[in-house]
Amino acid sequence: MSSPAGKSAPASLSPLVHLCSLIRLSNQTGTLLLMIPTLWALVLASKGRPAGLLIVLFIAGSFIMRSAGVIINDLADRSFDRRVTRTQTRPLASGVLRPWHAILFLGVLLAIAVSLLLFLNPLAIRLGPVALALAAIYPFTKRFFRVPQLFLGLAFGWGAVMAWAAVRNQLNPATWLLFSATICWALAYDTIYALQDVEDDLRIGVNSSAILFGSRVWAAVGIIETVMLALLATAGWLENLNAVFYVGLAGVAGFLSQQVLRLRSQVSPPEAFSMFKQHTVIGLVILIGIWMGTL
Fold first, then answer.
1. In the chain, count of helices (H) and strands (E)?
2. CB–CB of 254/246 below 8 Å?
3. Which pTM does this prediction carry?
4. Other CB atoms within 10 A of residue 202 CB
5. Residue 84 — pLDDT band, cuts 50, 70, 90?
6. Is residue 11 within 8 Å of 94, Cβ to Cβ?
């Protein structure tokens, strides 16, 4: 995920600048959306007192894995990206970086990810390869699956499963509720994100949930987000969170309902991107609610 302009550095700049552009260093919305569910899990599983080392590891791991994920995505989609206005200036699509540059950088990032993984307990380590497999599969799903955003949710939600395992060394029912809630959340916000590219996606023949839902995208997003909130509320109930958590969820529900109402009308690409970015704030409000719910 990148900015709506899909801007890349000019070819005359140094390779390091192009590598920074490749991993969207100037736009960390994707990193936040990957990181926030891991923090949900760390805070909930630890009853509001997550270990500092785990916080550092999962923040760093989110940045590394999101960076690796966008490299895999750009390697897989470089022929498509050349035909989409928003993405045609990305380093691989524009040719300012060669695929072997990206593959080498990807190898470095994955080596760092493995080194971070080794600080976790055995259960979390065993769960790690699933995260890489999901990140590798996701870019190809738009070719054959009507709702590729579902696979993005699986990839982003798996971080919460690993974080829970890192705290408790076991997987509880609340783990899978958080995982499912993250899948729903990603499906909702990435459907909004995909509204930017509907015309280009139709032209080049790739799938997205925005295309599938069509004029009913507002209803689909509303239903998905309602399920997400119900899953989070159930996880909070299982873990005995106090009323503050539910007040926070109610506030989130009110804000999300405003987004859904806006989606009933045509949304421009810049507005879709702005609505998508608002979900980082939504995720942080839920995080604060979880933490205060443990006090």
1. 13, 0
2. no
3. 0.92
4. 12
5. confident
6. yes
